[in-house]
Amino acid sequence: MFYYEGQFYEGNSISLNINDSTWLYGATVFTTMRVYKQSLNHPLTNWQKHCDRLLKSIEELNWTFPDWQLIKQEVEQLLIYFPVIRITVFPDGRELIIGRQLPTNLFQKQQEGIKGLVCLNPSIQRSIPEHKTGNYLAPWLALQQAQKQGYQEAILTNIEHNWLETSTGNLWGYKQGIWFTPNLAQGILPGIARQTIIDKAQFPIEINQWTPDFINDLEAIAYSNSVIEIIPFHKIINGEKVIDYDHNHPAYKALKGIFD
After folding, report:
1. Is the pTM here over 0.85, yes or no?
2. What is the pLDDT of residue 194?
3. Are residues 76 and 138 in the same domain?
């Protein structure tokens, strides 16, 4: 079930004009949020931050504003059935509101960690990274390449071999008592979960560039997004180099505690 242009639908399809910029160019902006305890008012749901993300993009792209009250009403109907809601806004103000369940193996990944593959092709980077647009081809390609080789996530890089973000979230690395996350100025998505961690942390955080030298001696690495919260990496393949990490590193307690 979903909402599109103010109408409720059951099924998995909508009708679009063949010249619609949505599918011709990926011309949408969207945000995906996890709704805690079926409440938009829950502090971890970050309802206002998700709305602000959409508003900022629509303003800067000079698109038509949607009916915000309608969007909220439709979200409130779907959150009864789904813990994850995706809000998509089209250039002309149309809205598409869909819901989904949490990943079935999320708890296992949070506890045991995952394997990641570093994407060594610097041309595979997010389009207009300051906005969450429907053109997600580059991260999708990176993730597909990783999954075909048996890994659960891909790590995007730039021409200087700096690590930027994962295909679906923001990176976190720990060493010498400090949690680090890459600088947005390198061209990465300003994730809402990332900002939540920065705002709520009661432990040292530094924002920096993840150069090869910096990455070399990290003790623990994880990634975050609004749906999965925090997932550690227990192994990362970087070219010919295989790096193992302790997914039970004690530093994760503070990072995961943000979402308790």
Report:
1. yes
2. 98
3. no
The number of distinct structural domains making up the chain is 2
45-49 contacts at long range (C-beta below 8 A, 24 or more positions apart)? 46/192, 46/196, 46/226, 49/192, 49/195, 49/196
Are residue 143 and residue 251 in the same domain, yes or no?
A: yes
Same domain? 87 vs 141: no
pLDDT of residue 174: 98
pLDDT band for position 163 (cuts 50, 70, 90)? very high
Quote the CA–CA distance of 46 and 97 in Å, as a whole number.
17
Query: In the chain, count of helices (H) and strands (E)?
Result: 8, 14
- Please, are residues 182 and 208 in contact by the beta-carbon 8 Å criterion? yes
Angle at 222 between CA 217 and CA 223, to 5 degrees: 135
Query: Does residue 110 sit in the same domain as residue 230?
Result: yes
Q: By residue range, what is the domain housing residue 142? A: 106-257
Q: Which of 76, 100, 124 is the last residue of a domain?
A: 100
Closest CA to 203 of 176, 178, 220: 178
